[in-house]
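Example 306, ligand NAP.
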Amino acid sequence: MYDVIVIGSGAAGYTATIYSCRAGRRTLLVAGSVSGGQLMLTSDVENFPGFPEAVLGPELMERMRKQAQRFGPDILYDDVSQVDFRSKPFEVTVAGKKHQARAVVIATGANAKWLGLPSETRLRGKGVSSCATCDGFFFKEKDVIVVGGGDTAMEEATFLANIVRGVTVVHRREKLRASQILQDRALKNPKINFIWDSVVNEILGDTKVTGARIKNLKTGKESSLKNEGVFVAIGYEPNTEIFKGHVELDRAGYIVTKRETETSIPGVFAAGDVRDFRYRQAVTAAADGCKASMDADRFISEHQKS
Ligand code: NAP
């Protein structure tokens, strides 16, 4: 039996594993069949402290993996198919085999939704991004597009307007979904233009983004827009499918936590983007992994006493 099972291998999962092992807890990391989380899809990371010359996302994750491995966890590169948090110890099934632990840290993250265009996949990290905070700086004094009409899109557009030359928001309807205050802020910003009733059909460029083809859904007319970045801000999907009915989720599917990392089940903790839709940064996810691990350690100690 394990003390702690960590599910997920992004910044939160690796950090939770490092802290758990270093606290002397027997730890299983279920890293998933596709390990490393969202940073595996990123190129230069300039805002993770300790890397003055920037670091590539996959390299950062490989370093985190090696660092976690150094402290001796068992690691499974497979997906969790089932959990049972009613049983004590908790049960986590991976590749048909049940594993037991006294505490669990869920760090399965969230995925940005994408438009699903082949050109978008090809140019991801080469001008196509889903995170203005992460990548906005690379577009200093350049023109960019933001796709979407919700809160995230308005926040991204407003954030980018402070850095870039101009922002064009492309939204598929003539009405924004975002809250009034965020709409007003974006609509009033002289550096933000809006193209309504339109979708991005194709992102242009061979090795980096040079523009986008836009289609007006009402008239069917297509046009090209020159720009150097496309920020897709059409929402996120937390990876919580297997936890439905096992821990409390909010309407959007994020794990509900109180006192930082505690879920609705005592002894089950959540860390990173799977619970945090506000910050979504590698550094905040790593910090969250640390907190969840310390909370799990404390839970185990307190449980042993009683
Ligand atoms: P969202 O509210 O679901 O909005 C997604 C936007 O993208 C919508 O405008 C939608 O268009 C558009 N969209 C979806 N799929 C598309 C596609 N395939 N092609 C083109 N456009 C597409 O997502 P979100 O903005 O990420 O917000 C998620 C949740 O987090 C919300 O509850 C939001 O309030 C919250 N949030 C809050 C804040 C804040 O309060 N500061 C900041 C960020 C997020 P339609 O409008 O036509 O559906």
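Summary: Residues 115, 147-153, 155, 172-173, 177, 199, 234-236, 252, 277 surround NAP (CB under 6 Å).
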